[in-house]
Amino acid sequence: MSRSRRSIPEELLLLALDPTTGTTAQPQSLDLGLAGAQLVELALAGRIAPNGDRIAVVLARPTGDPTLDTALELLRRRGAPVRAVHWVGGPRLGLRQTYLSHLERCGMVHAVENQMCGVLPTTRYQATDTEVSREIRARLDGAIRTGTPPDARTAALAALAHAVGLGKHLYPGNEGRSSRSRLRDLIRHDPMGGLVAHAVMDVQNGVAGQARRPAPAVRGRRPAVPTPARGGQQVPDQTRRREPARVPARPSLSSR
């Protein structure tokens, strides 16, 4: 893929960077969004396609982007289509730092070394090419202001920005409420972006890890309910069998 254009993970990260503090907004959900943004970028490159709520590899040829190609190879090794929510919620250690380092090599950001509380070393990133950041923001603002359906790339970026919670960062306060609402509405303009955005929100809400609902109890039987036992352990309650009442024996005639 051409490197003259920023990828969606890079654009999402640039949107999340605070130009004043150099920190990233919503860092935990942003990591989920970056994993989802990789799926959108691979779909736009024709390497994967949605299959219901799953992602299927349709072309395993490398894209030329090392980070995307690593994700593509992991998807290919799965063999079968993978649920988007499982991919987004999987371990992605160092993914944000990988993209920050790449943006630094490209001259988009520069690292600022600092110390927290004068002891712990920290690294913050300041955007250096503000023109690119303004162009990304202008695309979102234009889609929100005009209400016209945006292109697939902008629609997917808007969907991911909403999913990771960047709405209040980009459009803060009461005056930004209508813009945040329109940002949310853009989620429907790109099927792949919408699928991934919903997966990001499902992971945050714990939907992916919910256990199945217990099966309904069979009619006529009392469901097993855990009852406390000695030592604080729980044991299943078992239905007690009723024993027949004992009838006292009548005295024999010889004992009278």
From TrEMBL:
Pfam families: GPP34
Region feature (Disordered): 208-256
Ranges of Low complexity composition bias in the record: 208-232, 246-256
Topological type in the membrane: Peripheral membrane protein
Gene Ontology annotations for the cellular component aspect, listed alphabetically: cytoplasm; endomembrane system
Cytoplasm in keyword set: no
Subcellular locations according to the entry: Golgi apparatus membrane
InterPro entries in UniProt: GPP34-like, GPP34-like_sf
Keyword vocabulary terms for this entry: Golgi apparatus, Lipid-binding, Membrane
GO molecular function: phosphatidylinositol-4-phosphate binding
Protein name as catalogued: GPP34 family phosphoprotein
